[in-house]
Amino acid sequence: MALVLLLFLLAVSVSADEDAFIGVNIGTDVSDMPSPTQVVALLKAQNIHHVRLYDTDRAILLALANTGISVTVSVPNDQLLGIGQSNATAANWITRNVIAHVPATNITAIAVGSEVLTTLPNAAPVLVSALKFIHSALVASNLDRQIKVSTTHSSSIILDSFPPSQAFFNRSWDPVMVPLLKFLQSSGSYLMLNVYPYYDYIQSNDVIPLDYALFRPLPPNKEAVDHNTLLHYTNVFDAVVDAAYFAMSYLNFTNVPIVVTESGWPSKGDSSERDATLDNANTYNSNLIRHVLNNTGTPKHPGVAVSTYIYELYNEDLRSGPVSEKNWGLFNANGVPVYILHLTGAGTVLANDTTNQTFCVAKNNADPKMLQAGLDWACGPGKVDCSPLLQGQPCYDPDNVVAHATYAFNAYFQQMAKSPGTCDFKGVAIITTTNPSHGSCIFPGSGGKNGTRVNETSLAPSSNTTSSGCLSEYYYGGGSFRSSVILGLLALIAVFL
């Protein structure tokens, strides 16, 4: 009987009015915070059309005017008690922070408080009142259809989240969750959920595989199976979202959609945070973006949008706590990307090279034989001009396969107009925003300027872009550089001498 009920619940679809979108959160705990106009310029350059603010910063809202960017504004937790206890206070808040900016600024949602149940439980009794008072003020201003009202939740309010079909909200919050879900349902709003597979992974004591947290492909026998529904889960993100859907259905709410208001992965951590790395952050966010924009949905609701805001736009160096707390951003404060996402295609949201100064370099730890094969291919079938690598030429030194392969790889990458897949060379090349030029050796694509920024994150591996196994044109032995081209030239010179 229980299985029949669960299968029935699976058949009840959560409707979606539009395709899923990717947005970003904009935090401001930054010592050298960019100006609002700089922030908006970055958003435009990155084709970001959805942002979430943690407050109602007037300067940023004015800068966002007439951009068309959809904005979620927030009632900070320290204002929640006042608004939840007074309809007039809520109305004044709407007048100052919303009516003053619309329609020029496209405010589409209000997050009333942040993770209140888990971080500010003493305000929980007035949470639903605060939402209702804010919504009533919007109704009075005829803005309720344009602007949704909700509140963000930590996924930790869900207990026993796997298998998802057995998940339920912490029952102690039923006096809040039930009226809250009734409000969301009646107002056509959505549940705001913060989903952090990074924390699920590190708190699991290695029970959760890293690949499962990062959306990496899993063999079928490694997929997580909900034995009640026989649904297969290939990533933590989907499992948590479906756990929330099942938890709502347990309270008899089956038509409230979910928007993920925070998700991401830190790019740096301290010695105890070994998986907070550039590569993992890049992999997670790149895969998350693809997963969301493909409208994949979740196993419980395939094809139903799960729009998601990435945490976050900038690294916030002023945040307290472990090193990872300061390193969730996609960009540094100067607009320089922390890493280049594994995304390709013109117009892709967050194709985040803001400088258009990207280069292709050899991986330092790559197999020398693979580097040699890639170097041979680039200087041969790849039709790269490798003459600057000859002895006595500007790029001969340093005389090693990594340095020479870097020059050849980059020359090919630039020659191919940085086309997707042209910086791979069987996995021994990576994209970087650091200009590898040095001394008089000016790399193609550099415009004659040397860079200082390090970024060792590659694009997604390409398939059959390059080949190895060609005749060895460049060979390194005992640290010396030889070339069949040089030998040929010497033989030719000997003939004419």
Automatic annotation (TrEMBL):
Instruction: From the Swiss-Prot or TrEMBL record, state where the protein is found.
Output: Cell membrane
E.C. number? 3.2.1.39
Q: Name one Pfam family in it.
A: Glyco_hydro_17
Which terms are listed as keywords in the entry? Answer: Cell membrane, Disulfide bond, Glycoprotein, Glycosidase, GPI-anchor, Hydrolase, Lipoprotein, Membrane, Plant defense, Signal
* GO MF term set: glucan endo-1,3-beta-D-glucosidase activity
Q: Which residues form the signal peptide?
A: 1-16
User: Matching InterPro entries, A to Z?
Assistant: GH (IPR017853), Glyco_hydro_17 (IPR000490), Glyco_hydro_17_plant (IPR044965), X8 (IPR012946)
**Which GO annotations describe the biological process of this protein?**
carbohydrate metabolic process; defense response
Question: What membrane topology is given?
Answer: Lipid-anchor; GPI-anchor
Q: Identify the main location.
A: membrane
Per the record, what are the reactions this protein catalyses?
Hydrolysis of (1->3)-beta-D-glucosidic linkages in (1->3)-beta-D-glucans
Q: Does the keyword Hydrolase apply?
A: yes
Q: Which GO terms describe its cellular component?
A: plasma membrane; plasmodesma; side of membrane
Where in the numbering of this chain does the X8 domain appear? 358-443
Family recorded in the similarity comment? Belongs to the glycosyl hydrolase 17 family.
Protein name stated in the entry: glucan endo-1,3-beta-D-glucosidase
